[in-house]
Amino acid sequence: MDMLYTLGLFFGSLIANTLASLSGGGSGLIQFPLLIFLGLPFSIALATHKVASVALGLGAAIKHIRSGSLNWGLTLAVILAGMFGVILGANLILFVPGRIAETMLGGLILGLGIYSLIKQELGQQEERRNRHWQGILLGGLGLAVIGILNGSLTAGTGLFVTLFLIRWFGFDYKQAVALTLVSVGLFWNGIGAVAIYFAGAEIYWPWIPVLLLGSLLGGYLGAHLAAQKSNTVIKRCFELLTFLVGIKLLLGV
Questions:
Q1: How far is residue 249's CA from residue 29's CA, in Å, rounded to a whole number?
Q2: What is the mean pLDDT of residues 51-67?
Q3: Residue 38: what are its φ and ψ, rounded to 5°?
Q4: Distance CA 178, CA 83 (A)
Q5: Secondary structure of the chain in the HEC alphabet?
Q6: What are the angstrom distances between the C-alpha of 86 and each of 7, 182, 226?
Q7: CA atoms in the 13 A half-sphere facing the CB of 234
Q8: Distance between CA 45 and CA 50 in Å, rounded?
Q9: For residue 120, what pLDDT band results from cuts at 50, 70 and 90?
Q10: Dihedral angle of Cα 243, 59, 102, 115, to the nearest 10 degrees
C-alpha cells in the first residue's frame, strides 16, 4: 500500500469516526464507501469496516470510562439485548440482497433526523423512564431488532440506538451517545466482526492497522468533543449525520 492510500485511509477513518463518536453513530457513511473507492469488493469492504469500527468504540470507551459518564447496568443490558441480533444479522447479510434493506433503512434514518429536528426539547434533559425490569425487557426486544440491522448493514444503526435510548429510557443526548458508543461501537461491532468472519466473509488485513488507528483516535477525539459541547450541539450533529446517512442509503451512493 503506497503512502497516498495510507494517508487517505487514515484521514478518512479519523474524520468518519470523530463525527460518529460525537453524534452516536454513522462512521460507515465515510469509511465504508472509502474502502470501496480504494478498490475493495463490497463484501470484503463490509467485513474490513466492521473490524476497524471496533476501535471507534474502544477510543470512545476510554474517554467515557475516565469521565465516569456511563450507566453500567443499562450498558450491560444494551450489550446483551443486541448481541444475538448482531450475530443473526451478520449471517443473514451474506445470503440476502441488501439494496432493498438499505433503502428502507435510509428512509427510517432520515425519519429519525426529521423527528429530532421537530422535537426541539428532545434529549436536552434527562427524564428517567422505563428503567424497571419490565421496561428494560421490552426495550431489550427493540434493541435486539436494531442489533439485526447492525450485524447486516454498513452504517447508521448506532444512530437508531442513540435515539431509542433517548425516547425509551429518557437519557439526554450526551448520556445516550456515550452508552451507544461503548455498547454498540465496541461490543456489538466486535461481535459482528467475529460473526461475519466466521460466516465466511473475507477481511483485507493489510489495511486494518491504519483503519484501527484512525478509528481509535477518532473515537477518543469525538468523545472528548462531546464532553465539551452542549446537548444542543450534539443534537444538531446527530441530525446532520442522520440526514447524510439516510440520503446516502436511499440513493445507494
A1: 9
A2: 81
A3: -85, 0
A4: 18
A5: CCHHHHHHHHHHHHHHHHHHHHHCCCCHHHHHHHHHHCCCCHHHHHHHHHHHHHHHHHHHHHHHHHHCCCCHHHHHHHHHHHHHHHHHHHHHCCCCCCHHHHHHHHHHHHHHHHHHHHCCCCCCCCCCCCCCHHHHHHHHHHHHHHHHHHHHCCCCHHHHHHHHHHHHHCCCHHHHHHHHHHHHHHHHHHHHHHHHHHCCCCCCHHHHHHHHHHHHHHHHHHHHHHHHCCHHHHHHHHHHHHHHHHHHHHHCC
A6: 31, 15, 26
A7: 32
A8: 9
A9: confident
A10: -30
The distance from CA 78 to its chain's CA centroid, rounded to whole angstroms, is 13
Q: How is residue 28 written as a grid cell?
A: 460507515
Record the pTM.
0.79
Quick one: which of 214, 217, 153, 189 has its CA closest to 5? 214
**In angstroms, rounded to a whole number, what is the distance separating the alpha carbons of residues 189 and 200?**
17
Q: In angstroms, rounded to a whole number, what is the distance separating the alpha carbons of residues 233 and 196? A: 35
For the record, the C-alpha cell of 142 comes out as 427493540
Whether the Cβ atoms of residue 224 and residue 61 lie closer than 8 Å to each other: no
For residue range 67-94, what is the model confidence (pLDDT) as tens digits?
Answer: 776 778 888 888 888 888 887 877 766 5
- Give the Cα separation of 104 and 95 in Å (integer): 18
Phi, psi of 242 (to 5 degrees): -65, -40
Per-residue cell: 198: 466466521
Which one-letter amino acid corresponds to residue 99?
Answer: R
What are the tens digits of pLDDT across the range 179-230?
888 888 888 888 877 877 787 778 888 889 999 999 889 888 888 888 788 8
